[in-house]
């Protein structure tokens, strides 16, 4: 057995890169996960309000996914099959077609890409540029789309951008996201720049936008704004890429976060919770008329994680064949909204952020947000911040969390808010 | 069950992107894998000489890895833990340290990156540029390092490069790989360009090189050349990145393909067979003094696939605690060399390529190579081509393939060569 | 003598590139220029309201400049001296120091650059990036800064941008110029994007801005806006480059167009009328603490046109030793404003543009503006359009034009407006 | 009068940028130039072996050019005419057609560009990329093509490249120039890289090459090599741009330096001596089928310096209507070769460089070369170094220099060589 079972974590310092991050907020060694509960090496239990940054929307180790995966492995089902045909992939695609695409009138094709969100985003960029013959891509302030070079150019965060040592992050124009400029109508800003042939903003290959910005601070775009962006893209012959990696798979109450907006994205990068069980898996949904790459024009070794096909299929069968699950999520989202509103009232200048089960409170400073999360962790709650200055306390609980545990977790959070607000007042 | 069990593959045409590729050479639906044998939906068995492009060096579904993984899942072990501490990660790191790093005198740290080779390569580029304050990276002709924007700039293949629609693939200088210019001393070419302050080749942040070029046509660099490149990098203050993604994990007979060269790479991107069982997993090995990123300066959701930690650890324990396995691989590599030599003698102008269990024959034309692979597939052998013009018939059998099955597979290949050579002669 | 004296212009079609442009609006062969009057090969006289796009602010062939230049040539004064010391350069520098820099409290140094505006702009970009270690430069919509690769990236016009065949025009962020977004406060847009560390707009090396945008449609920035931009640059550690190439040398009534704004640019690219007589000449004014390049770190063959030193010095001595000339320009600018206002009233939706002797009328459509200019040319007036859609009739008369000739030219223009407006009404 | 006439040079320190360079080698103030003789403010005469870096191939102030220019100015001929038609331009074009183009069977069109070499080069790059739809341009080691961003990317010198503060100089591949790699066949290097579709060297829009590299160290390409490059360009659908800016206008004995090679460049950037008298002037010669830009798609204020049209025409009429001048240049080139050979024999390891009247000696070190030039200057000879390490003593005398003065200058140079070699020996 590992030495960590004796409380010795030196192996991480000795052999894991310093770039590791989440372990610094949650400084213990985890051993087990069951739905919304994590257990550490000392047997202590935690409620998980981070959910793998929305990669575990169905919680840890769903029993049905587990069972199907164990059965697959036991029977020597393919573990790695490059992009060859497998029965497992066929069953996943058939279920995705029937459960998700057809009911929503979507004719998209599924492009298997390397199993990370940034791979899906990179594929979308390359394809959009190839199709349109244009290079510029419109991204939005506070957007996050990944850390490989193409995606990093789309990403707003200066700390992330500077990690690459100053290589130019080109062929991208960053425009203000909905609500990011106070009273200024950001749609009008975009419109004016694009309609002016001397603006210096080159005709874009695509717009890429998150319906709710996860890393950027739980900024939720309005229906009007998203429709305006979709119309603007169309008007200028640009493709609309809706990055639903963090906001998708039920997080906001519908399978795709863009569903309530009545827009038709040309491409949809998916990842995070798409595998159902937190296994690495990503795909790019592409309108069939845009599916123009020749075989292998874009490729990669791990496209189509076969184990993930198994669990992703089970997730779709279990949660998306009727609207029971969606209704539950919506209901939990309302509870979340209510409780966060109460907390926000206790913090001067606090603002509610987000949508559905992807909500948080902008508490005005990164220091306060961090203090609240640290206090909550002391009391068994795993929760993180987001936003440009880490100023948003972000709740990303599993959508499957039992209501009682959810409320208890929110009680823990509320107590942490109280403690930190009092500490802050005392310090002033 | 899926319709494909009834022989209906229409779901793939209907819903999977046209960019899929390997399925086109091997047009059947696979259901099971055991060591070097794949089984399709009709119960037909195939010998796998492709091994997930060297992602399945230990074959399909190794029983010990299976058992450990099933135990992990059954016990609700963490499936997805972001980059938090887990007992599973600790055990993997401890085993990797003891089994691989310490015996080789390597003090590298392990950076968990997104679970694809290109993520590891992108991380190495960003880090090298940040550390040196330089932008240019030296890559080599026929190199392949991935398909995301940063890695694609390093990749030689024009078809892949053009997939992105013409975005500039900058900040890279492509120099000739060992042996790629006939009699010209390619090391001298590199040296002259770098030593001339007016060459226009900017001082590099790094050299990135594969010990054996897998996609590029199984080109194997000599010891002298690799040492020369390592010395040149050092002389010019550049870091040496050895991309051992395809050639590593025992493929050439040692754990790392660069071991026989007596060089000390600054960074080593690992992926493909690193997880042992074909699960998506990648890491960047980094010398400790280069481990300078702040927490989260580079990040990603799926860094550190916990299931892969389990299987990777078992693989290290099972195959790398003594030299039994390495000797077997070397022995099989000699058999392979012998049999390919015999085949090459039957083809005008054919050349042997590669090293260890990563060998092939350049048959002079892509058409002939493709015909041979297609003929072999008819007879139950899964085998692919590589090289700029797909002119190399490439053998990447699992290293664990039983000798008898290996020889039978080579018989099948030899027969395919005979048939195709005769067909070609007949057609002329 | 040339065949053109016989009306044969075929040599131009035969041997001059089709990219030539102004000759297409003014399809005759010119032979002589005297102040505001041009004479063509048939002896016809034209009033020049274009003035070499503001390169002839002192008119054609000023007699004092002519005399000095002829004396210089006659005496075998240096015609080309690279950047060696000459008495001619010394006299120019001494005069520029005494006449322009000292009275304005400017301690700038004069960097001789290649004799075109774009050379001065390219030098400013390179220097700003070197000094700050940053790459991004903020430019503004409808800006024009030149056609070489670095300057083209700053330029807004899409037709110009596309001339380069799609090479990336990177490391520039284009923000909205004053007044370019209707009611939207464009300074606030700039401020919000720069103050948000996750906006994706990288910290800039410099802001580059024209006080009045010549090619962009005679957009004149307000004092408040220019001061706001200057403050924003300072706040973010960016240099302020004020491109006074077209708007400088008295065009708006002061030597530099930025004088009324009370700002202190770090660098000022100068060209066009800087030589006084229309000879190719450009320079970059640089604050002494920014004059950090080593000898020859930026160079060029024609830096410091010696003939231009002669004429530029005479221009400074003649026009800028007291405020007589500046007052005349201001007065003429008021006449121009008055007359253009009258014309604008006759055109539905017309808007007055510009400042000083750099004014025009946005007539709402490129077709109408072109028709007006063509009609004016028929009646002996040389005048051009500007703006993204060529929708602005632009008056750039020599500042030295006799008042009577100026008013007669404005009469011609007013008549052309009347004619074209009536034609337009008739056509509707 | 200027204070410099009293020996006070403080104005330069006070007001001219430190980036100035030639004045540092020749630290006196020049006042007059006549053919190959410069006179300084103290009346001292110098023989000019620098000739404005080959911008004064016909010497200073040729009396016929002077006379024509004075006549033009006196008669109020156009000084600045944008790109409008003038009689002066017509006469120049007619003379260039008759004297240069037609006798050489060239059907090129003349594109007037901004009056510096780098403007012509930038225009050629933009046009080549637009025509081919490709971005990559092949340039050669030790090449120099200018300092604006597009041209700088082509330039080899690292000092120049670094002047821009690290902006990426992309879309260019630098290949080894003829003779730059000892025994390695550099044409074979180019061929192998371009013929390998996986080399990572993207299909080029153009090759740009100097027949003799002036700044790069007077490297003269062989006929075979230039023909090989021309053939390679053609084979790969790339345009051939021959940069004859420094080597053209008779410098090597023919009007164009590429004439002896029997190649047909697609584009030829011209500048430096093209105006005849050292006035700023540049043009791009373009094959008619490549003259595809729309009017103003590339533009600039000072395209077509009218004063230069006058002097350039006189130069063509005076020197190129028969072969007298060319023969004289060839003869002088042989004298030069003979004398430099004698000098080279006195220096260990010295190598002769160049061709025609563009020759020098690589003396093995920049220090020695600089010492020789400084010693020569003490004795009234203006001469400079070139090469990556400034190791080449470079003779660029006016082609019109009287033979006696030429030989006397060479005597001065030979004496400087003797002195410096003896000093060096003494110091060792």
UniProtKB/TrEMBL annotation, chains A, B, C, D:
Pfam families: Aminotran_3. Its EC number is 2.6.1.76. It is an enzyme of class 2 (transferase). Keywords: Aminotransferase, Pyridoxal phosphate, Transferase. GO terms for molecular function: diaminobutyrate-2-oxoglutarate transaminase activity; diaminobutyrate-pyruvate transaminase activity; pyridoxal phosphate binding. Pathway: Amine and polyamine biosynthesis; ectoine biosynthesis; L-ectoine from L-aspartate 4-semialdehyde: step 1/3. One of its GO terms (biological process) is ectoine biosynthetic process. InterPro entries: Aminotrans_3 (IPR005814), Aminotrans_3_PPA_site (IPR049704), Dat (IPR004637), Ectoine_EctB (IPR012773), PyrdxlP-dep_Trfase (IPR015424), PyrdxlP-dep_Trfase_major (IPR015421), PyrdxlP-dep_Trfase_small (IPR015422). Its cofactor is pyridoxal 5'-phosphate. SUPFAM superfamilies: PLP-dependent transferases. Gene3D superfamilies: Aspartate Aminotransferase, domain 1 (3.90.1150.10), Type I PLP-dependent aspartate aminotransferase-like (Major domain) (3.40.640.10). Belongs to the class-III pyridoxal-phosphate-dependent aminotransferase family. This is Diaminobutyrate--2-oxoglutarate transaminase. It comes from Tranquillimonas rosea. The lineage of its organism: Bacteria, Pseudomonadati, Pseudomonadota, Alphaproteobacteria, Rhodobacterales.
């Amino acid at each position: 057995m590992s030495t960590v079972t004796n409380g010795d974590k030196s192996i991480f310092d000795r052999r894991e890169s310093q770039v590791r991050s989440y372990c610094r907020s949650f400084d213990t060694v985890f051993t087990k996960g069951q739905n919304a509960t994590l257990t550490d090496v000392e047997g202590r239990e935690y409620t998980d309000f981070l959910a793998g940054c929305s990669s575990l929307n169905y919680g840890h180790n769903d029993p049905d996914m587990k069972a199907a995966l164990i059965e697959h492995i036991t029977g020597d089902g393919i573990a790695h099959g490059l992009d060859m045909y497998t029965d497992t992939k066929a069953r996943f695609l058939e279920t995705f077609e029937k459960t998700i695409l057809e009911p929503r009138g979507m004719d998209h094709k599924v492009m298997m890409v390397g199993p990370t969100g940034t791979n899906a985003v990179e594929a979308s960029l390359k394809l959009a540029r190839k199709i349109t013959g244009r290079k510029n891509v419109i991204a939005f302030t506070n957007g996050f789309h990944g850390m490989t070079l193409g995606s990093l150019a789309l990403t707003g965060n200066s700390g992330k951008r500077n990690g690459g040592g100053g290589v130019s992050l080109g062929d991208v124009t960053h425009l203000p996201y909905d609500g990011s400029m106070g009273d200024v109508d950001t749609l009008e800003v975009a419109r004016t720049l694009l309609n002016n042939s001397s603006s210096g903003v080159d005709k874009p290959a695509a717009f890429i936008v998150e319906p709710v910005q996860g890393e950027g601070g739980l900024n939720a775009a309005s229906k009007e704004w998203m429709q305006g962006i979709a119309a603007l893209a169309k008007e200028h012959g640009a493709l609309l890429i809706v990055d639903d990696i963090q906001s998708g798979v039920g997080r906001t109450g519908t399978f795709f976060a863009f569903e309530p907006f009545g827009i038709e994205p040309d491409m949809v990068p998916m990842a995070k919770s798409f595998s159902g069980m937190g296994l690495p898996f990503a795909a790019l949904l592409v309108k069939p008329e845009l599916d123009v790459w020749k075989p292998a024009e874009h490729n990669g070794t791990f496209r189509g994680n076969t184990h993930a096909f198994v669990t992703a299929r089970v997730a779709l069968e279990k949660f998306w064949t009727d609207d029971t699950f969606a209704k539950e999520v919506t209901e939990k989202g309302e509870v979340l909204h209510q409780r966060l509103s109460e907390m926000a009232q206790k913090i001067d200048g606090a603002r509610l952020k987000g949508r559905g089960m992807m909500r948080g409170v902008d508490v005005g400073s990164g220091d306060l947000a961090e203090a609240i999360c640290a206090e909550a962790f002391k009391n068994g709650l795993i929760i993180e911040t987001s936003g440009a200055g880490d100023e948003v306390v972000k709740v990303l609980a599993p959508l499957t969390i039992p209501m009682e545990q959810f409320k208890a977790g929110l009680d823990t959070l509320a107590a942490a808010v109280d403690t930190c607000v009092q500490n802050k007042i005392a310090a002033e």
